Amino acid sequence: MNKAWWKESVIYQIYPRSFNDSNGDGIGDINGITEKIPYLSELGIDVIWLSPVYKSPNDDNGYDISDYRDIMDEFGTMLDFDIMLSKAHGHGIKIMMDLVVNHSSDEHDWFRESRKSKDNPYRDYYIWKKTDNGEPPTNWGAAFGGSVWEYDEQTSEFYLHLFSKKQPDLNWENPVLRNEVYEMMRFWLDKGIDGFRMDVINFISKDSSYPQGEIREGHKYGDGSKYYMNGPRIHEFLQEMNKEVLSQYDTITVGEMPGVTVEEGKLYTGDDRSELNMVFHFEHVGLGDGRFGKWDPHPWRLTELKEIFNKWQKGLEKGGWNSLYWSNHDQPRAISRWGNDSEEHRVTSGKMIATCLHLMQGTPYIYQGEEIGMTNVKFDNINDYRDIETLNAYRDLTSDSLTHDKIFKGIHERSRDNARTPVQWDASPNAGFTDGTPWINVNPNYEKINAEAAVKDEDSIFHYYKKLIQLRKQNEVIVYGTFDLVMEGDEQIFAFTRTLGGDQLLVICNFSNCTPIFKLPGNVRYTSKQLLISNLTADENEPIEEFPLMPYEARVYRLKK
Ligand code: NOJ
Question: Which residue, by CA, sits nearest to atom 6 of ligand 1?
Answer without folding.
Answer: 63
